[in-house]
Design a protein that fits this description.
By secondary structure, the protein is α+β, with helices and mostly antiparallel strands. The chain has helices at residues 4-7, 28-34, 44-56, 61-64, 84-93, 99-111, 113-116, 121-147, 153-165, 169-176, 190-209, 215-237, 250-264; strands spanning 18-20, 23-27, 65-72, 75-82.
């Protein structure tokens, strides 16, 4: 006879996976249902964000998110075979307000406990994704600025920083304790990164709508938008952007996420195998 405690035991993730060539996989359709998503279609957003994070980390998405078609109840359905690392990235990008998602995040934190003290779950992954958007956004902003006659892009960017930080970027680095030759974006937290991304995208949109061909007016637009977002940061956080704390360098975070991939996707060794 089973004891009350044993009858309440919750099955582990491994009990719902399947093994192929020593690697464990889980069906995305099953995993999405477990995390509280109504269908694979509604589950696409966290899947796509997780795939983007994987690509940003220079990890092969095709090895971790294997799109396939399978038969279920006589019907052919589209699905993904997910590695444990893919499941981890999805959990970190899923809706953390769902209790089951929060529990999944805790589960995976325990799985990578060897390096967990260095990882900050969904916040770290969001930082990596926003940083990548900033790289792309700055290219688009530079293109928009060039069309208004901007040739001195250093001056143009400096005006945006002056609006946002109310001081040159070199002074911000000194205040934050970041070396002069380091890229400040690599040390920004999620809030500061997101605010800078908003500055970049709003300036790009404003310049695209502007009829001006004056580089000085373009710089003034950038500064004014920076000032407006600076006020928003203060209103919503109680701190100005230069007062926001620095975080661990993003290339170190990326390195630890790649270590997490190795730990989570560790190949199952069968008897007799070396």
């Amino acid at each position: 006879m089973k004891s009350p405690s044993s009858s309440k035991r919750k099955p582990s993730l491994d009990e719902f996976g399947f093994e192929e060539n020593g690697i464990m996989y889980w069906w995305a359709s099953w995993y999405g249902d477990v995390l509280g998503y109504a269908s694979l279609d509604t589950f696409q957003k966290p899947i796509q964000k997780a795939m983007q994070a994987c690509a940003t980390l220079h990890i092969d998405t095709s090895e971790n998110f294997i799109e396939t078609y399978r038969t279920e109840d006589g019907k052919t359905i589209r699905d993904y075979k997910l590695t444990r690392f893919a499941c981890y990235l999805i959990a970190m990008n899923a809706d953390g307000r769902k209790p089951v998602v929060a529990r999944a995040q805790v589960y995976f934190a325990e799985q990578v406990e060897k390096i967990n003290h260095l990882l900050d779950g969904s916040k770290d992954i969001e930082r990596i994704l926003i940083r990548e958007e900033i790289k792309e956004g700055n290219l688009a902003l530079t293109s928009a600025a060039a069309k208004t006659g901007v040739k001195d892009f250093r001056m143009f960017m400096t005006e945006g920083y002056l609006g946002f930080y109310n001081k040159p970027i070199r002074e911000v680095k000194v205040e934050k304790g970041v070396d002069e030759d380091e890229n400040l974006y690599e040390y920004m937290g999620r809030t500061e990164l997101a605010a800078n991304l908003f500055r970049i995208t709003m300036t790009e949109e404003k310049l695209k709508k502007s009829d001006s061909d004056s580089p000085f007016e373009a710089a003034a637009i950038h500064r004014k938008i920076g000032e407006g977002i600076r006020d928003m940061v203060k209103e919503n956080t109680g701190k100005f952007p230069e007062e926001l704390p620095v975080e661990r360098k993003l290339n170190e975070v990326a390195s630890d996420l790649r270590k997490a991939k190795k730990i989570l996707n560790e190949k199952i060794e069968k008897p007799g195998e070396k």
